[in-house]
Amino acid sequence: MSGKIETRLSDLGITLPTATAPVANYVPYVKSGNLVHVSGQITMENGELKFVGKLGKDYGVEEGQKAARLCALNLIAQLRAAIGDLDNVTRVVKLNAFVNSAPDFTDQPKVVNGASDTMVEIFGDVGKHARSAVGVASLPLGVAVEIDGIFEVA
């Protein structure tokens, strides 16, 4: 039987992607005590890069929010690979978000709301978290957004 988070995902029409393998010398997640640190997730969907470019040049805020949502879903997929049952998540602790930004783009927090809103949509109050939203000059593979996360588990 599905847990409450898996049921919520189904009710929302969300299918989590398969957790991807790392592309360099790191691991996708580290469990330490009751915390799971998930490595930065990019805008990969079904093995294909999405949202390659800069916010404020190639994409607007709304598209950036979709990119951040995709990163959030990839984070949750890695988290599920780490712990199995998403019902064991007791808190989304922190998201660190990096937004590939044109020099004059200053709406990084609005972009990252795409990930924050997704966490709350899926986990409810447990999904409310601290975060950073940082504009950067470039990101790996030229993607628009990369996000890592820290999660508390039972």
TrEMBL record:
Pfam families linked: YjgF_endoribonc
All copies of the Endoribonuclease L-PSP/chorismate mutase-like domain together span 6-141
Ranges in a coiled coil: none
Q: Which domain of life is it from?
A: Bacteria
The record's section on InterPro entries has:
Endoribo_LPSP/chorism_mut-like (IPR013813), RutC-like_sf (IPR035959)
Q: What is this protein called?
A: Endoribonuclease
Q: Which organism is it from?
A: Thalassospira profundimaris
